[in-house]
Amino acid sequence: MLQIIQNLQTGTTSLIEVPCPLPQKGQILIKSHFSLMSLGTERMLVEFGKASWIDKAKQQPDKVKQVLQKIKTDGLGPTIEVIKRKLDTPIPLGYSNVGEIIGVGEDVIDFKIGDRVVSNGPHAEFVCVPQNLVARIPEQVSYESASFTIIGAIGLQGIRLLNPTFGETIVVIGLGLIGMITCQLLKANGCKVIGFDLDPDKIKLAQSLGVSAFLLEQSTDRISLIENLTLRLGADGVIITANSKSNDIIHEAAQMCRKRGRIILVGVVGLELRRSDFYEKEITFQVSCSYGPGRYDDTYEQKGIDYPIGYVRWTEKRNFEAVLNALEEGILKVDQLISNIIPIESFKLVYDEISESKNIATLFKYAENKIPEKATLVTNRNIILKSGKECIGIIGAGNYTSSVVLPILKKYNAQIKYLCSAKGLTASTLAKKYFIQNATSDYRILLEDSDVNTIIITTRHNTHAQLVISALEAGKNVFVEKPLALTLMELDQIEAAYKASKGQLVVGFNRRFAPLAIELQNLISGTDIPISVIATMNAGPLPLDHWTTDQITGGGRIIGEACHYFDLISSLTNSSINQVIMNSIDVAEDTASILLQYQNGSLGVINYFSNGSKDYNKERIEVYSQGRTAIIDNFKRLDNFGFGRSSISIKQDKGQDNQFKFFLDSIRIGGKAIIPIESILNTSKAVIGAVLSQKSRNWYEIK
Question: Any keyword Oxidoreductase (predicted)?
């Protein structure tokens, strides 16, 4: 299928061929008929992409602080690579799409195939959207008119925050697409509406829609104008839908307001506020968030859990429906707002002139006869695979795949036949970059291909177990990024599948393969005397809504991240864990101490802390044995006390390179798995057992 993307590093806007997405649980697959180009938002993205690195930094001062902190902790080189990779990640453009449902995922109950719907899907021939971001189009509303729904919901949410009453005077600053729709909805609410803009054509258009609109350049004394139009009372409220860096807009908005007036910012303007503007009149100022309640809340958007209408009357989806009702009843008129309708293939006509464009709205039209059959696979036929060599399929095309897996596999000339991602876009762009023959959105294609002998899984944690089982049942070698599973039941199912399979199973416990960890292992090997190990992870906090901390999706940070240290200590002790107990000081279980008892008498302590200083190194491993001590500091140096010389590495190496090199060698040459399956299962059970022990307050025995 075709999709428009933006590269933030080069500023290039492209139309590329990507696999058609497949509807996941709670999602809806839509065949696009039209999508609306939002000039303001998309102009910002395009101009940001074309800006120099210095200008990009000026536009995002908060990100600059994060970069400086990362340089301090990780070094300049790795930080620059992260920035380049982030900017090089394609951004799908567009967020106002209309079309016909052609597929529904599990748990979708309010929609059926054939329904005409709106969604916040991008400019693409097929889009896959969570059901709470989809609304059904009334029969009397055309696809063209319905294309304005999502943009309309942005203006409507600003109005809801303003909470105007019948007869109030509201000023709208900025008469672009959102401003025009906002004016109409305010008029329908019984308000007197006054609009301002810099463009004479937009003033004329607004006046034709019944708005008292004035040109900003001509209305030099805008404050006096508002006083005259309101009998010297001042405006009851101001909605700002403009896009400007100027701080004067907020200042003038405050001067326009009456005492205890309200200002709602829907657009993007300078926010250096003058206290006196707000203090003397007790003016209220608020920033509106997109389409309304539910936006950016994964529980609402991704998991499909609606807010009860008795508590949250207007969610983003219900705002969509309200706009559609306004279109159906003729309250909102959008025909005059359409500047042009062009085929998606002619996208350059718009984007090449986006900086100077005065269009209000452009609609992209999609071919009606296209079907997504077999479109889940995009093949580069110029890439020829060699027979008799390993043949790899990768499921997951996120940050770990792009930053770690693919560069290392390329370094060791690994042969990759497939790269799979749920929506297809990242798989397609990375496949081109790394000369991978096929990009797909359907992982089943990889499992059904007899040429593929190895599957690498780098998806979110809650998908690992089932993908591992499916790959083992298909007879493949399997590498899965940690963790192996989130529950003991999943582990039992994986163990059964492994025993019935001929393939290898490796989990991405890379710390044991770090050069300094291998050196330390060699120093303490050759004796059965128990050792004591303390592993400390200064992990730092994650946002409370980060997917890793979600118990269903990520399993929490102990299972998802601390598992590395269970495996590393097991490797150093050359033994299996007998018992484990954990004590955490918080509900999130990301600040905890864990005690491990080993079969050979060794002891392990894992301190996984999220409450430490960012300036302190992240990882520290201490080994105590026979009057000797060795310390790995952040995987950059090994300090030995009683073992001999210390070692210092030029750069941090956590073992990722060795891990994949050894894994590829084991596939190519044969022989033992790089981590014994008994150790993998023991570690995985112990990690889950640690979390269970926190709840029971008792030692958990590993069986």
Answer: yes
CA distance 435 to 416: 9
Residues 6+ apart with CB under 8 A from 670: none
Residue 279's φ and ψ, nearest 5 degrees, are: -70, -50
Q: Are residues 107 and 166 in the same domain?
A: no
Domain interval for residue 205: 161-287
For residue 643, name the pLDDT band (cuts at 50, 70, 90). confident
Q: Average model confidence (pLDDT) for the chain?
A: 92
Q: State the CATH number of the domain containing residue 586.
A: 3.30.360.10
From 287, 319, 353, give the residue that closes a domain. Answer: 287
Of 499, 498, 516, 515, nearest in space to 507 by CA: 498
User: pLDDT by residue (tens digit) across 247-302?
Assistant: 999 999 999 999 999 999 999 999 999 999 999 999 999 999 999 999 999 999 99
Query: How far is residue 197 from each of residues 173, 334, 335, measured CA to CA in Å?
Result: 6, 19, 20
Per residue in 651-685, pLDDT tens? 899 999 999 999 999 999 888 899 999 999 999 99
**Residues 144, 186 within the same domain:** no
Indicate if 517 and 656 belong to the same structural domain: yes
Are 684 and 508 in contact, with CB atoms under 8 Å apart?
no
| End position of a domain, from candidates 249, 266, 287 | 287
* Count of helices and strands (H, E) across the chain: 25, 32
Q: Vertex 224, ends 218 and 227: CA angle to 5°?
A: 130
Q: Could you give phi then psi for residue 78, rounded to 5 degrees?
A: -60, -35
Give CA–CA dist 611/613, Å, rounded.
7
* Closest to 351 measured CA to CA, from 675, 621, 6: 6
Host H or E run for residue 619: strand 619-625
> Which of 580, 586, 539, 553 has its CA nearest to residue 696?
580
Tell whether the torsion through CA atoms of 345, 349, 351 and 352 is positive or negative: positive
Rounded to whole angstroms, how far apart are CA atoms 393 and 644? Answer: 44
- The encoded tokens of residue 392 equal 């790899």
Spacing of C-alpha 24 from chain mean position: 16
- Is residue 528 domain-resident? yes
Number of domains comprising the chain: 4
Share of the chain above pLDDT 70, in %: 96
**pLDDT tens, 579-600?**
999 999 877 788 999 999 999 9
For residues 281 and 167, state if they share a domain. Answer: yes
pTM for this one?
0.90
State the alpha helices, DSSP H only, in 352-505: 399-400, 406-411, 425-433, 444-448, 464-473, 488-499
DSSP state, residue 478: E
Cβ burial, residue 556 (10 Å; 0-12/13-18/19+): buried
Based on the domain organization, do 547 and 619 belong to the same domain?
Answer: yes
Q: State how far the Cα of 51 lies from the Cα of 55, in Å rounded to an integer.
A: 6
- For residues 486, 487, 492, 496, the Cα torsion angle rounded to the nearest 10 degrees is -30
